[in-house]
Amino acid sequence: MEKNRLEAFSDGVLAIIITIMVLELKVPSGAGLQALKPMAPVFLSYLLSFIYVGIYWNNHHHLFQSTRRVTGGILWANLNLLFWLSLFPFATAWVGGNHLAPIPTALYGGVLLLAAMAYYLLQSRIIAQQGPNSLLAAAVGRDLKGKVSLALYLISIAAACWHPWIATTLHVTVACIWLVPDRRIERALHHRQES
Amino acid sequence: MEKNRLEAFSDGVLAIIITIMVLELKVPSGAGLQALKPMAPVFLSYLLSFIYVGIYWNNHHHLFQSTRRVTGGILWANLNLLFWLSLFPFATAWVGGNHLAPIPTALYGGVLLLAAMAYYLLQSRIIAQQGPNSLLAAAVGRDLKGKVSLALYLISIAAACWHPWIATTLHVTVACIWLVPDRRIERALHHRQES
Amino acid sequence: MEKNRLEAFSDGVLAIIITIMVLELKVPSGAGLQALKPMAPVFLSYLLSFIYVGIYWNNHHHLFQSTRRVTGGILWANLNLLFWLSLFPFATAWVGGNHLAPIPTALYGGVLLLAAMAYYLLQSRIIAQQGPNSLLAAAVGRDLKGKVSLALYLISIAAACWHPWIATTLHVTVACIWLVPDRRIERALHHRQES
Amino acid sequence: MEKNRLEAFSDGVLAIIITIMVLELKVPSGAGLQALKPMAPVFLSYLLSFIYVGIYWNNHHHLFQSTRRVTGGILWANLNLLFWLSLFPFATAWVGGNHLAPIPTALYGGVLLLAAMAYYLLQSRIIAQQGPNSLLAAAVGRDLKGKVSLALYLISIAAACWHPWIATTLHVTVACIWLVPDRRIERALHHRQES
Questions:
Q1: Which chains border C (3 or more CB–CB pairs < 8 Å)?
Q2: Residue B82 sits at the chain A interface (C-beta within 8 Å)
Q3: Rounded-to-integer distance, Cα D138 and Cα D185, Å
Q4: What pLDDT, on a 0 to 100 scale, did the predictor assign at position B122?
Q5: Long-range CB contacts (within 8 A, 24+) of D122-131
Q6: Which pLDDT does position C31 carry in this prediction?
Q7: Is residue B122 a contact partner of residue B74, using CB atoms and an 8 Å limit?
Q8: pLDDT: is C95 or A139 the higher one?
Q9: Separation CA B113–CA C93 (nearest Å)
């Protein structure tokens, strides 16, 4: 029961984050096509962030699918993740409004990195509670995907200061890696049920 | 269980979309009746979009009523639909603030079209998973309503560039077509229970 | 099940309405006490609207407590109610920002009236579906409270044009009448369980 | 069932409060690091308020864990708590935008105090309904933590007018006291199940 309320609260926060980002798409003053043109980078950064929040919602869901009891530590690790995700609207609007300028792009990478680290922490907390033989531990394994993502975010922050386009390409690449829903947990779950 | 969380998340996003649109009703600076007058088109476009989101919520609900398992494909098709619906506040504010100017009206039609296509995709995904003999497949049938809507949206985009009022009339017409809740699924469900 | 999702969606919309009203409390530019002073009417109108939305949430809850099946008619009557409630933030901000000017006060009364009428319609729809011997019909009875409220709202709109303070006093009075949670349904429910 | 809907509504309001605070992090006009610098106090006050809302959500959750029936009094005591919490975004933005000026800091302390008093009232209402031998009454005990917090908030308001930094230190201190999730209820619950 406690888990349900944590999931409902997280769903609420994620639903609001994913939706209020659209408030940064300020209505242009003109009514012509040329008024829409400067909005292209804002729109594209909104699209990328929408996909990222979608990925987090999806993975969050898989994470708690195998969780039964929620401890105080898990609860605060979850709030920590939600905090960094709540900075997405700000980072998205700043990077979108500045046509891939170095510092905003680096900050966007930084928010992605901190959210990923918070996710990793939350995952570790849940595994620690469930023990090394748990379903989640088996599903995550060595967590190559998670570690590669952290590395790419780090590189993107460094790259942003010189070639922001490289950083943006890396952000899109990591999104593509995760766009495929994390089947590891589902597969492990399925596997266990058979045996 | 997975389905419940997808429904809860979608409900959250739809509830936020339908409500933040009202933030575009900017409080007028004056306190007289004449201050309200220029708000009429903004108000009417808000009303139309409110009805549209209501229709989508209603149909979304019917769509998942007959769904049991949620696959990764359905999950992303659902997020795709939510993305296009999340652009309603922006499109509504732009068209409302420009008294039916051609480009904003065409963009509004475009967002309606893309949301409708996303809905069609989601419906197809669910039917594909459930098989051609499923309840949903029987209820949707040849999906005349869906196909006519797509055609009318397309015409509205073309019409908007010359006579925006024709486009707006088409948008209102499609809303009226769908305002009647989609009884096909309920009827099919009822039919099957009897036999 | 259908009812649960309607309740969840309504709860979401009401939670957002009650919370985004606070966004109209614009942060003052100064940092002194005198910067807070002009905010008093905005704050008081926020407080009144908060109580009103609280009352609607409370009564909405009682309304659906005795409801089992949700028809298309009930669903749209519910969306109609949510639409008028969604105008509360706009009306609240306008009346609060204009120190009880006649037209904004009349509009606030008008939104209260239309929301009350929508509530009455929703209640009638549910009773019509459940039959005249239903629990809800017995609990509502002649609905004196509802009818008196409608009358007071009507008077408040007329009064607002001459003496806005009378209108505001009426709005506060009706809130006080309803602040007492609607025990009629609970009592009727309790009564039936005994017999 | 009634309790579930109260929890869902409260979760929704808390999720929105915790997320719309981020809208006060206005996107800076420049794209350099120096544009971020003046945002530091806004960011830190957002962080503190995020933690506070997280603590309230956490404790709210524990409060209702041991509650079965929701009376009208509990319902309105809960709405009273949500009202004061809804003022967090306003108070946070004002204190953050004024670099710890006396009046905004005092107001922030005042909102914290009123929210804490509302929480105390809600807790008392629930205990009053459950009786002095209830689980919650045993868990709360003499409620030292709650009383110390109220005292520290009071001191912080007085201190803010002379040395705002002392007030802010007190606000951080109380947050630290509560950051440890309230294990009293869990422990009492666990204890009772054993005996």
A1: B, D
A2: yes
A3: 8
A4: 95
A5: D122/D63, D122/D74, D122/D77, D122/D78, D122/D80, D122/D81, D123/D63, D125/D71, D125/D73, D125/D74, D125/D77, D126/D63, D126/D64, D126/D67, D126/D74, D129/D69, D129/D71, D129/D73, D129/D74, D130/D66, D130/D67
A6: 86
A7: yes
A8: C95
A9: 34
Contact A32 B103 (CB under 8 A): yes
* Lookup: tokens for A126: 């849940």
Q: CA-CA-CA-CA torsion for D168, D171, D177, D182, nearest 10 degrees?
A: -150
Residues of D in contact with A103 (CB under 8 A): 31-33, 35-36
Higher pLDDT: C5 or A159? It is A159
Q: A75 contacts in D (CB within 8 Å)?
A: 58, 181
Name which of C8, C19, C58 is nearest D75 (Cβ-Cβ). C58
What's the pTM?
A: 0.91
| C14 Cβ under 8 Å from any chain D Cβ | yes
When scoring C4, C24, C74, C90 by the number of chain B Cβ atoms within 10 A, the one with the most, hence best to mutate, is: C90
CA distance A153 to chain B (A): 24
Kindly state the DSSP code that residue C29 receives in the 8-state scheme.
S
Q: Which two tokens stand for residue A93?
A: 């609007």
Q: Which of B19, B55, B187 to mutate to test the interface with C (most CBs of C within 10 A)?
A: B19
- Distance in Å, alpha carbon of B25 to nearest chain C alpha carbon: 7
Report the distance separating Cα A51 and Cα A175, nearest Å: 7
CB pairs under 8 A between A and B: 71
Q: Do D19 and A16 touch (CB under 8 A)?
A: yes
Q: Does the pLDDT value for residue A1 go beyond 60?
A: no
Q: What is the pLDDT of residues A77-97, one digit of tens each?
A: 999 999 999 999 999 999 998
Share of chain D above pLDDT 90, in %: 53
Side-chain-side CA neighbours of residue C114 (13 Å): 15
Structure tokens that stand for A168 in this block: 């943006």
| Cβ contacts from B onto C, under 8 A | 71
Vertex D33, ends D31 and D34: CA angle to 5°?
95
Q: Yes or no: say if C15 and C86 are a contact pair by the CB < 8 Å rule.
A: no
**Residue D47 and residue A79: Cβ atoms within 8 Å?**
no
Question: When comparing pLDDT for A19 and D133, which is higher?
Answer: A19
Q: What is the rounded average pLDDT of the residues C113-130?
A: 93
First to last CA, chain B: 28
Chain D interface includes A110 (CB < 8 A): no
**Which 3 state secondary structure label does DSSP give B161?**
coil
Higher pLDDT, A20 or D138: A20
pLDDT digits (tens, 9 = 90+) for A158-185: 999 889 999 999 999 999 988 865 566 6
Chain B residues whose CB is inside 8 A of the C90 CB are 22, 25, 27
Overall average pLDDT of the B19-48 stretch: 89
Segment holding D162, helix H or strand E: none
Band of pLDDT at residue A99, cut at 50, 70 and 90: confident
Q: What is the pLDDT of residues C127-166, one digit of tens each?
A: 888 887 787 888 787 888 899 999 999 999 999 988 999 9
Residue D18 has pLDDT above 80, yes or no: yes
**Residue D182's pLDDT band (boundaries 50, 70, 90)?**
low
The answer, for A179 touching chain B at a CB cutoff of 8 Å, is yes
Q: CB contact, 8 Å: A18 with chain D? A: no
* Contact between chains at C86 and B32 (C-beta distance less than 8 A): no
C-alpha D44/C-alpha C23 separation (Å) is 20
In chain C, residues with a C-beta closer than 8 Å to the C-beta of D5 are 7, 11, 61
Q: Chain A within 8 Å of D61 (Cβ-Cβ)?
A: yes
